[in-house]
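Bug #77: duplicate submission created two jobs. Keeping one. Sequence:
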Amino acid sequence: MGEAPAVQEPLRIAMLSYYLPSGSKIGVGFQAHELATELASRGHQVDVFSDCPPVPGAAYGHRHVAMSGSLRTFRFASALRRQDYTGYDVVHAHGDDYWMWRRRAGLHVRTVHGSCFEEARHIRGAKEKLRMLMLGLTEVLASVVADRVVVVSPQTRRWVPRSHDVIPNGVDTTRFTPAPEGDAARADHPVILFVGTWHGRKRGKDLAAAFQRDVRPRVPGAELWMVTRDAPADPGEGIRVLGRLSDEDLADAYRRAWVFCLPSSYEGFGIPYAEAMASGLPVVATPNVGARYVSDEGRAAVLADLDGLGTALADLLEDAPRRAALSAAGLERSRSFSLTAVADAYERLYREPARTVHTGDRT
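Kept job's structure:
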């Protein structure tokens, strides 16, 4: 009889993320929370070091690195440098690890969720552009500091001088699921769903304008549901502002809508695209880096420039067979982004032999 496979010991993982869902709507924080939750459910000891307060009911530990005053995201990196990680097998940073030159655990992993250099090309305002450029420089430093550098999409490598693996962001496919066949969850009238911000690179304001200009005249009963917290009190006829939704209500909104649209000028990945696809919801997006990757270069979604966005949405609302085909293609594509597959990839990375990473102290 062959030998039984060796039982692998649980890992002790320190996860670093300035953001968490308890204090921020930034997608990196949601991803850090989801990954930490999944790893903890597998028996690993996971502690998240964050400026945000604990997430209620979280399955992982929380180490509060409290910050105040100005330039907090930059000073957070210095605060992380002073933490004690000697009890951990892995330090996994989702940002702000660029001052951690000296080895503090057996393995130091950095996930780069997008490029601040790329975002600086699209963001408005000189002050914000400068801030993004400075953050981009920290990403370059971090790619040198870490043992293993992960990017969430192949295109992100353009801005990262040193990377080893592509591991996408993960979506909980037990929560984001299509409505059962014959289920009455789908709205009885055409609904476009948006998840993002009215201002800034998510371009909710531009989507609302395209909806008013191009969609409502052709599809008079259509509605635009906007999961956002910065929209004006009266965004326009046919537009419903839903504010911030709970996880359960957001999953329900994906199942009820007819089409999902997020016309961002830049996404490093774009978790809402993957959530919509996993929910069986056809996706329309502008051809930013993340949308192109998640949609497999438009094979699993409609990619349209901002000027043609409204027309693309109206065309899709009027074409049920096309929506069904996109739903099936998106659902198949979303399997590549399941949270379980992503956690599997990180577990393999955490346990790679030491010869594949740097050894020795760094000063």
